[in-house]
Design brief:
By secondary structure, this protein is an alpha+beta fold. Helices cover about 40% and strands about 15% of the residues. Helix 10 (about 220-230) runs parallel beside helix 12 (about 265-285). It is elongated, with a radius of gyration of 46 Å. Belongs to the PNO1 family.
Length: about 280
């Protein structure tokens, strides 16, 4: 009995020597069962500890103790911080609205105007700047000294491509298109301008060049109007320069017809080809 009491004293000294606060304690003696007078006899030792006389087991049981989470000021446990509602799956906060805006601030564009188009520009100036200001929210002015039209974004500009649309609109008018035809560039997104010269197709001089221009225009502009109606485009003949306004597919149809006329094809053959192309376009749409 004295030997068993000595071992208990040694174990108690080891337990007291361990640190008081620890997250995990791997060698902790399980509490002894309370002896009952009917089932076991309590033996009093010199240090006052009660030992079960029947079992007499001195084996140690290993228990794992997990320390509770630290309490906050109000007595509640402090949970781990969670991600904010606005954070993305990558862990980064979303960009502010000012950074995600695609509108280019203080964008400026100057479009030169040919000398022979300055008088029509002054005459149609009200019809030109009104749609650019109301539809695109641009700042527009005519620089008479530089012979140019200047465009600039403002606080009312919403579309990021407003300056480019306005520049294409003014350029189309400078090339000779009517205001109503050029206005389609502002209303539709799939319209483009295509320009080429007769010498890009075939090198012609003198009367040969004049006859080629006459074949494209026709008597009273009949051939040009027929090509426009069949291909749903607008065409401008400016000496040896040819400008076409329309979608990509329609521009290709009109350009092929004009190239055929430049190379010497008779207008009747071009009409027949345009008629078949127009029938296919109607079936497609």
């Amino acid at each position: 009995m004295a030997h068993k009491s000595h071992r208990q004293k040694a174990l108690q000294a080891q337990l007291e020597a361990q640190p008081a606060i620890s997250l995990v304690s791997s060698s902790k003696r399980a509490p002894l069962p309370k002896p009952t007078p009917s089932t076991s006899k309590a033996v009093s030792t010199q240090d006052g500890m009660a030992v079960d006389g029947e079992e007499g087991s001195d084996e140690e049981d290993d228990d794992v103790l997990i320390a509770p989470a630290p309490a906050g000021p109000s007595g509640t446990s402090i949970a781990e911080p969670t991600s904010t509602a606005g954070a993305s799956s990558s862990g980064f906060a979303p960009l502010p609205a000012s950074a995600t805006s695609a509108v280019l601030k203080n964008e400026f564009r100057r479009i030169p105007i040919p000398p022979h188009r300055m008088s029509p520009l002054k005459r149609d100036w009200v019809n030109l700047y009104t749609p650019m200001v109301e539809m695109l929210g641009l700042q527009v002015r005519m620089n008479v000294k530089r012979r140019a039209v200047e465009l600039k974004t403002s606080g009312h500009t919403i579309d990021s491509g407003a300056v480019q649309k306005g520049a294409d609109f003014v350029k189309a008018y400078a090339l000779g298109f009517d205001v109503n035809d050029a206005l389609a560039l502002l209303r539709l997104d799939d319209l483009y301008l295509d320009s080429f010269e007769i010498k890009d197709v075939k090198t012609l001089h003198g009367d040969h060049l004049s006859r080629a221009i006459g074949r494209i225009a026709g008597e009273g502009g009949k051939v040009k109007f027929s090509i426009e109606n069949a291909s749903r485009t607008r065409i401008v003949l400016a000496e040896t320069n040819i400008h076409i306004l329309g979608s990509v597919q329609n521009i290709k149809i009109a350009r092929d017809a004009i190239v055929s006329l430049i190379l010497g094809s008779p207008p009747g053959k071009v009409y027949a080809h345009l008629k078949s192309v127009g029938a296919r376009m109607k079936q497609r749409f």
